[in-house]
Amino acid sequence: MIYFDAAATTLQKPPQVRKMVAYAMEHYASPGRGGYRAAMLASDAVYDCRKELAELFEAKPEDIVFTMNATHALNLAIKTLVEPGDEVVISGFEHNAVWRPLVQIGANVKLAGRKLFDPDDTLEAFRVAIGPETKAVVCTHVSNVFGYVLPIEKIAALCHERGVPLVVDCSQSAGILPVSLGKLHAAFLCMPGHKSLYGPQGTGVLVCGHALRPLLAGGTGSLSKSASMPEFTPDAGEAGTHNVPGICALCEGVRFVKNVGLDAICAHGKMLGQLLTAELSSLPGVRVYHGRNQAGVVSFLLETEDTEQTAARLSSQGFSLRAGLHCAPLAHESAGTLSSGTVRASFSVFNTAREVRALAQSLIS
């Protein structure tokens, strides 16, 4: 099998990630729930992961809240900042993990920037949309459908200038592009652990630059006499038992990313994306969505075949790609592909140029 669905989850993990899951299950108990050796070792291991993440995202260890996934992190962030009726500005390329919580709350959602691969238009749209009534801005760093890298630094500067809290969905950028809590002046950074941080599924991270409103209530191992949740992070966002094997394995994934280097990871993904774009653009009847501001995610479709059929045909030949709307109907609406969806190829450090060429060859065979 040749796996091209890293934007959903990285299937191929560094070996130390898999090994750490088993090691943690054998040696670590629950952090903050006892003074015996297995509990203390767990506390140290979980804190080690906080330190690694804090260094990567230029935050403090206590700013790091462990979640189940990016959706969990986004819900924590959004429901901290947004009340029913509040005006919230989002990009035209958001995932349902942003759009649905806002609709559920009853927010007044304004879409800004709907031109694909046009950062100038995106920035100007945010400049116009953010007004005196805007309570928050939520923006993806990279589109999960098209790999469009939005001008998040300039959007963040605009939010900071106007005093509007910013939530950044880093689902497709964490572990690929530099992301700094301090430089962005962000209220929250939200990300999965299981994509380009190479941790296991069931792990996510919320990096907090703003006080957090608890989404869940329960035991934290701290302030146990109080009927209310602690107000300080990370405890305010971590009710209940931690996913210790997942967090420890995530720590190994983060160390792997640091060892390889963000520049090398980003360059590799872009190289594969540009190669696939060049290969597909030479084929008759294939429409490829590409631009200058693009990470290692490429969407395409065959003009004579349904996208689900294309993905199924490629699957029968040993290629794993995702077809459809990718849980991001706003992005497809913005790009004009809502009725058809796209076939998406997304890459990890374990993919090769040879695999990309084989995919292009299979499309015409």
Which helices and strands occur, and which strands form pairs?
Blueprint: E1 2-3, H1 15-27, H2 37-56, E2 64-67, H3 70-81, E3 87-91, H4 96-105, E4 108-112, H5 119-129, E5 134-140, H6 152-162, E6 166-169, H7 181-184, E7 188-192, E8 204-208, H8 244-260, H9 262-281, E9 286-289, E10 297-302, H10 307-316, E11 319-320, E12 322-324, H11 329-335, E13 342-346, H12 353-364
Parallel strand pairs: 1-11, 3-4, 3-5, 5-6, 6-7
Antiparallel strand pairs: 2-8, 7-8, 9-10, 10-13, 12-13
Helix pairs in contact: 1-8, 2-8, 3-4, 9-12
Describe the structure.
It contains twelve helices and 13 strands. By secondary structure, the chain is an alpha/beta fold. It folds into two domains: 2-10 and 262-364, Aspartate Aminotransferase, domain 1 (Alpha-Beta Complex); 15-260, Type I PLP-dependent aspartate aminotransferase-like (Major domain) (Aspartate Aminotransferase, domain 2), CATH 3.40.640. It has a seven-stranded mixed beta sheet, sandwiched between helices. The chain has a four-stranded antiparallel beta sheet with strand order 9-10-13-12, covered by helices on one side. Strands 1-11 form a two-stranded parallel ribbon. The longest helix is centred in the N-terminal third of the chain and has 20 residues, at 37-56. The protein is globular. The two termini are 17 Å apart.
